[in-house]
Amino acid sequence: MRLLLAPMEGLLDDVLRATLTRPGGYDHAVSEFARVSGTLLPDRFFRRIAPELDCDSRTAAGTPVRVQLLGSDPQCMADNAARLARLRPAGIDLNFGCPAPTVNRHRGGAVLLDEPELLFRIARAVAAALPPELPLSAKMRLGVRDPARAAECAQALADGGARLLVVHARTKLDGYRPPAHWEWVARVADAVAVPVVANGEVWTAADWTRCRAVSGVADVMLGRGAVADPFLARRIRAGRLAPPAAEERDAEWCALLPLLGEFRDRVRRKVEARHAPGRIKQWLHLLARNYPGAQRLFAEIRGLRTLDEVDRALALHGVPAGTPNPPARAPGAWDRVDDDALLESAA
Ligand SMILES: Cc1cc2nc3c(=O)[nH]c(=O)nc-3n(C[C@H](O)[C@H](O)[C@H](O)COP(=O)(O)O)c2cc1C
Description:
There is one protein chain. This protein has about 350 residues and is of the alpha/beta class. It folds into two domains: about 5-235, TIM Barrel (Alpha-Beta Barrel), CATH 3.20.20.70; about 245-345, no CATH class. It has 15 helices and eight strands. Strands 1-2-3-4-5-6-7-8 form an eight-stranded parallel beta barrel, surrounded by six helices. Strand 1, helix 1 (about 15-20) and strand 2 (about 30-35) form a beta-alpha-beta unit. Helix 1 packs antiparallel against helix 11. The longest helix is centred in the C-terminal third of the chain and has 25 residues, at about 245-270. Flavin mononucleotide binds near residues 6 and 68.
């Protein structure tokens, strides 16, 4: 069974991918989307979205990262995919799930689910432009307004050459409103011969179990649940499916503190100082769903404006201090951190 880490524009960038893949458990991650619209994107554009491309297309912990493309012109998508392929990504993923009005207005993302024939042409053009060994996957919702054409869309993508389909079990109209309709993933999986991955509303190991039972598929992609619970994939892999007891949560929180410190340091390196507190608050806000320690910390920093103020609060809560301007690390340097010690303390 596979566990995948979802693409999430504006939330799960290379910085958070590096952090969330450290505890382990993911087979691959998918980058945020690169929007393809009429031009051939320069290499630096792909590298900005997926800096992992410079590190064998892996996160520092070694998890492969596929790069996602979003667009509607088959030839332009193919040309850009061929250009991206030269950077040797771990795979290319096509986005047919984005519900954002600006994206949809330009005929990108979920709105194309009304045009299965176009999905086929995009997948076929991209597949033909790629070396055969480079995995091509696609991520779709169930439809625009209703799921009536979900199986047809999946067939179009598979016939076109997508070798793995991730199905976010909601329509564009559903947005992110619960529930996710996992039973529709089963219908899609019945219609195609390629592996289908279920996605949507998996926050806990119990959700994962139910999602697999209802959808009938073995593989699951985790999105917000992975951000809110960085040990979720690892716990699932270890077969620890019961909700963690309070002591286990506390131990996990202790193991998260160095990860938070690393995250803060990476954020400091990557984003402008005025945006850095927002990034830290954003992650803590989701962590607060599961960790009382995160709730307390979030309550303390939510009104703070500067990174120095946030840093002082983090230090008081046990987050290890970083260096004010940490040097850029050589690719793979994070691998040398003693993961086993970190994770044993969380188990
Ligand atoms: C903030 C945010 C950004 C997202 N960005 C992308 C994206 O760039 N590409 C994509 O295919 N899906 C994107 N998604 C959808 C997620 O990958 C996932 O399908 C969705 O969140 C449902 O899974 P979940 O309930 O486990 O979070 C995004 C979702 C969120 C919440």
